[in-house]
Design a protein that fits this description.
This protein is α+β, with helices and mostly antiparallel strands and 363 residues long. It contains twelve helices and six strands. It folds into two domains: 220 residues, no CATH class; 121 residues, no CATH class. Helices cover 62% and strands 20% of the residues.
């Protein structure tokens, strides 16, 4: 049951949290998205409506990093106000310890972390793929590119399902295509075609002038079918083939785990992908450790303004991400395991927060 003190502190946290979401969204979207899109519009002639769509699609990927920042700012500002108006002293004089006051803060940090994790799993991969598809479609329309020796594997539940190869690809059309299909690790059929064209209406590839070779369990051809035109549902769009391997930002945790298994079977180094896999959990849960750090840092009788809180938040976030980059680099050098490389910044930040809280509690 939520007590009055918990509701009171949660109310104090909500307003600065919303302020932080707006402030950091404006700052990061301008620096990470808008500048690039303005250059594309001015220098490369990208249509303004396309630039606006790309901005909207890319925004969720930025918001994942904004949730922890907003949580830190909310805790700093809320406890700065409580401290500057001596409410923290009043609570402690009434027998309420700082450890008790921190409970609703931890609850909020955990709730934001879970929301952020769900958001990053459901919304972000789809929005990033939509942005990439739109950019590829625009590029194909205004300045066609050609790619040679396109090779993309497709996994399903951790097992290899298809290997897709095309000699050349331009816009949404591929030439000299070969598709190998597998079932339970065994090759079951091979599809060859002189051309494959993407149909945006049905989200399918239309194969033309091809042959389907059915393969027996013994590995011998048992039947072949020639066709003039055949629709084949493959989960990859033209954008996926143009970019090549999918980026971790475009995959859910399960999809990235399958992707890593495939790469390992192919003998590819996967340390970086494993770090990215753990980062998909570590970044959302940064909200929890920032809550633990921000609340005790905010307890100061002289710190109450939003500008000071925002500045202090930016400094803390700067050092957090510097630590993240260092930790990831050490992980890529294989000096520490990938899971530790991803979670080490959270462990250190949470430890510092708990240390500051312990010091404040005995003062």
């Amino acid at each position: 049951m939520i007590k009055i003190i918990d509701r009171y502190i949660l109310r104090e946290l909500i307003e600065p949290f919303l302020f932080g979401l707006g402030a950091f969204t404006a700052i990061l979207s301008a620096s990470m998205i808008l500048f690039e899109l303005v250059r594309a519009v001015v220098l490369k002639g990208m249509p303004l409506i396309v630039a606006l769509q790309v901005f909207i699609y890319r925004l969720p990927g930025i918001v994942v990093y904004i949730f922890p920042m907003a949580t830190l700012l909310a805790c700093l500002l809320a406890f700065s106000r409580l401290s500057s108006e001596s409410e923290v002293i009043a609570f402690r004089a009434s027998g309420i310890s700082l450890y008790r006051l921190i409970i609703p803060v931890i609850f909020m940090g955990l709730a934001v972390s879970l929301v952020n994790l769900s958001f990053s799993e459901v919304v972000v991969p789809e929005s990033n793929k939509a942005a990439k598809n739109l950019l590829i479609a625009t590029t194909a329309e205004h300045k066609p590119k050609m790619q040679k020796n396109v090779f993309v594997p497709e996994m399903e539940k951790g097992e290899l399902k298809r290997i897709f190869y095309a000699e050349t690809m331009k816009a949404d059309t591929m030439q000299d295509v070969i598709v190998q299909e597998f079932s339970q690790g065994k090759l079951t059929q091979i599809i060859t075609a002189s051309q494959a064209k993407w149909s945006s209406q049905s989200d399918e590839w239309i194969f033309r002038d091809g042959t389907i070779y059915l393969i027996a369990e013994t590995g011998e051809y048992k039947h072949l079918i020639k066709f003039k035109e055949q629709s084949i549902a493959i989960k990859y769009s033209p954008a996926d083939f143009f970019i090549g391997d999918k980026n971790p930002e475009e995959m859910t945790i399960a999809e990235l785990a399958d992707f890593i298994k495939l790469k390992e079977k192919m003998g590819v180094e996967t340390t970086d992908f494993k770090i990215q896999l753990n980062m998909k959990l570590a970044i959302p849960f940064a909200s929890l450790v920032f809550a633990l750090l921000g609340a005790p840092m905010g307890i100061s009788p002289r710190r109450a303004s939003s500008s000071i809180g925002l500045g202090l938040s930016i400094i803390v976030i700067f050092f957090y991400y510097i630590l993240t980059f260092i930790s990831m680099a050490v992980g890529e050098l294989k000096l520490i395991i990938p899971s530790l490389a991803a979670w080490l910044p959270n462990i250190i930040t949470g430890g510092v927060g708990w240390y500051i809280l312990s010091k404040k509690a005995v003062q």
